[in-house]
UniProtKB/TrEMBL annotation:
Signal peptide: none
Residue ranges annotated for the Peptidase M24 domain, each copy included: 322-532
Protein known as: X-Pro aminopeptidase
GO cellular component, one term: cytoplasm
PANTHER family, sorted: XAA-PRO AMINOPEPTIDASE 1
Pfam families for the chain: Creatinase_N, Creatinase_N_2, Peptidase_M24, Peptidase_M24_C
Record family assignment: Belongs to the peptidase M24B family.
MF terms (GO), sorted A to Z: metal ion binding; metalloaminopeptidase activity
Domain Creatinase N-terminal: 21-152
Keywords: Aminopeptidase, Hydrolase, Metal-binding, Protease
Source taxonomy: Bacteria, Pseudomonadati, Pseudomonadota, Alphaproteobacteria, Hyphomicrobiales
Keyword Metal-binding appears in the UniProt entry: yes
InterPro entries listed in its UniProt record: Creatin/AminoP/Spt16_N (IPR029149), Creatinase/aminopeptidase-like (IPR036005), Creatinase_N (IPR000587), Pept_M24 (IPR000994), Pept_M24B (IPR033740), Peptidase_M24_C (IPR032416), X-Pro_aminopeptidase_P (IPR050422)
Domain Peptidase M24 C-terminal: 543-601
Length: 602
């Protein structure tokens, strides 16, 4: 029987709690003389994964997705979710208490402008919103004739009696062998472009810049903290002392003056009194911090973190680490797919047992530090939910049909993310058609050649063209950036309709087109790719392409080979030949035989 170290399948959502907690919330707001309150799913760093103590949205509404926003007014309340979560939200939330509103139809700011009462006072926690977000909701409140009001204490915290304590995981040093560049060299590069001072508010930037990793959040090895980097002074690093061993403290102390995060507001106020110019990361800096600095007299500048692009362009050591991590991970995933192929037809597997098996194959590598996100193990109709989370309550038995597994791992040398969709028994004609179209989109991205300066939005359509020809599409991006033993979702580059950052050599991104038929099946085929230079005879521009990093077979049983052109077949056969050649020596004879069949030419 398999067990888990990194996943919890307990169902925490309970729609029956929504109405009584909403009633408590409104009572608290009346006591604070507020007519409404904004409830984002966020922490003071705008992290994707937040600590349990920051799950205020889930506590209030019952919704446990990784992205959402609620607005509570005296007479109505709404939960806003994107297309990934509309079905999940309907299942987890009391619709009598909270209206579930699709983000693409009605943004929260528009809803606030339409529903806030005139002269109403709408509260918000300035530690959970960026300045741009605050400006957007201030404008919405003004349109309604209302006022947006910052609160000193979040009212949910007073109501949440059993709220978990803040995390205090140990900080570790990330070795030069894996980082590829010393922290003092990174600091020197960062200082070159600074006018005065920069507040590092993104824990991923902090981890990369100082070559440290932490244990404050699940699935992402970061330490919650801040840093002030000055052009001509020693940096200040704000990390709780309890997280630092003597050795780690000494190493970091050689790079920066150490302080407690609670000291940051006073330090910013002092810089303000000195009329210093401070750059804040527009994507992650809390409005509370910019408000403190500005009120004290600082010149506040908001812009994209200068670390974001530096971090996204992996150096040679990080790329070698990514290749090693994907080799290790490919062996584990291939072993799992072989095992699954043998076990699934027996009818004894379920979504949780399959997820546990994959985790254990990864743990058998001896190098697994964590999963890079909770495994999406989805059979049948559940696969139509792009961000499905299996629980003990939803755990479906796997029989004949479609199984989708989206999973990833954190290793010291790299982060992985891979999705495979496999069939148990003969697939339907509709599934074969859609699956082959998704595969054609995946291959189009993998084979893409593009001039330097191309942005992700210019490539996005390549993955959708075959689906569009059949009147089909999917509601998520084609690809996101991936960190180096950091976040599995890393900016600033992405392949999506909104991806406006140029792709640069060394960036690692996902290639994951999909298709989802509600109530029936879901399809996603995902590999990670690295941007690399391409030499093309006679080329008049510097050209780039993708190196596919992921090493695991793609199920070809549902492929209609007649729908693939010669170049698509050549790519698929070459990919499988490479997978077979590299992985076969690392597998058992039974697994090698299975892999040979799974990677046979189409």
């Amino acid at each position: 029987m398999f067990d888990s170290l990194y996943q919890d399948f307990t169902e925490t959502a309970d729609p029956t709690r929504g109405a009584p907690r909403l009633k408590q919330m409104r009572g608290k707001l009346r006591a604070e003389k507020l007519d409404g309150f904004l409830v984002p799913r966020a922490d003071a760093h705008q992290n994707e994964y937040v600590a349990p103590c920051e799950e205020r949205l889930a506590w209030l509404t019952g919704f446990t997705g990784s992205a959402g926003f609620a607005i509570v007014l005296r007479d109505k309340a709404a939960l806003f979710v994107d297309g990934r979560y509309t079905i999940q939200a309907r299942e987890q939330v009391d619709s009598q208490a909270f209206a579930v509103v699709p983000l693409d139809q009605t943004p929260p700011a528009d809803w606030l402008a339409q529903n806030a009462r005139k002269k109403g006072r709408i509260g918000y926690d300035p530690w959970l919103h960026t300045p741009a977000q605050v400006a957007r909701y201030e404008a919405a409140a003004r349109r309604a004739g209302a006022e947006l009001v910052a609160v000193e204490a979040n009212p949910i915290d007073a109501l949440w009696r059993d709220r978990p304590a803040p995390p205090c995981g140990p900080v570790a040093l990330h070795s030069l062998k894996n980082a590829g560049e010393k922290a003092d060299k990174k600091l020197a590069r960062l200082r070159e472009g600074l006018a005065d001072a920069f507040l590092v508010s993104d824990p991923h930037d902090l981890a990369w810049l100082f070559n440290l990793r932490g244990a404050d959040l699940g699935h992402t090895p970061v330490a919650l903290g801040f840093a002030l980097v000055f052009r001509a002074e020693k940096p200040k690093l704000f990390l709780a002392a309890d997280k630092l061993s003597a050795r780690v403290g000494a190493a970091l102390g050689a790079l920066a003056d150490l302080a407690d995060p609670q000291d940051l507001p006073a330090v910013l106020a002092e810089l303000g009194r000195k009329k210093r110019r401070i750059l804040f990361d527009s994507a992650t800096a809390a409005a509370a911090l910019t408000q403190i600095a500005s009120a004290a007299g600082a010149e506040v500048e908001l812009a994209q973190s200068p670390i974001a692009l530096m971090k996204a362009q992996k150096n040679a050591r990080e790329l070698d680490g990514a290749r090693a991590a994907h080799l290790r991970d490919g062996v584990a995933l291939t072993k799992f797919l072989c095992w699954f192929d043998a076990q699934a037809p027996k009818g004894k597997l379920a979504e949780i047992s399959a997820a546990l098996a994959l985790e254990n194959f990864r743990r058998d590598t001896g190098a697994l530090k964590d999963l890079s996100f909770p495994t999406i193990s989805a059979f049948g109709a559940h696969a139509a939910l792009p961000h499905y989370r299996v629980t003990e309550a939803s755990d479906a038995k796997i029989g004949k049909g479609v199984y989708l597994v989206d999973s990833g791992a954190q290793y010291l040398d790299g982060t992985t993310d891979v999705t495979r969709t496999v069939t148990v028994g003969p697939p339907s004609k509709a599934f074969v058609d859609a699956y082959t179209r998704v595969l054609k989109g995946h291959i189009a991205i993998a084979r893409a050649l593009f001039p330097r300066g191309t942005v992700g939005a210019q490539l996005d359509a390549l993955a959708r063209l075959s689906l569009w020809r059949a009147g089909l599409d999917f509601d998520h991006g084609v690809g996101h950036g991936v960190g180096s033993y950091l976040s599995v979702h890393e900016g600033p580059a992405r392949i999506s309709k909104m991806g406006m950052v140029a792709l640069e050599s060394g960036m690692i991104l996902s290639n994951e087109p999909g298709y989802y038929r509600e109530g029936a099946f879901g399809i996603r085929i995902e590999n990670l790719v690295a941007v690399e230079p391409r030499n093309i005879a006679g080329a008049e521009r510097d050209m780039l392409g993708f190196e596919t990093l992921t090493l695991a077979p793609i199920d070809t049983r549902p492929v209609d080979a007649k729908m693939l052109d010669a170049d698509e077949k050549a790519w698929l056969n070459a990919f499988h030949a490479r997978v077979r050649k590299i992985l076969s020596p690392l597998l058992s004879p039974k697994e090698r035989a299975w892999l040979k069949r799974a990677t046979a030419s189409v």
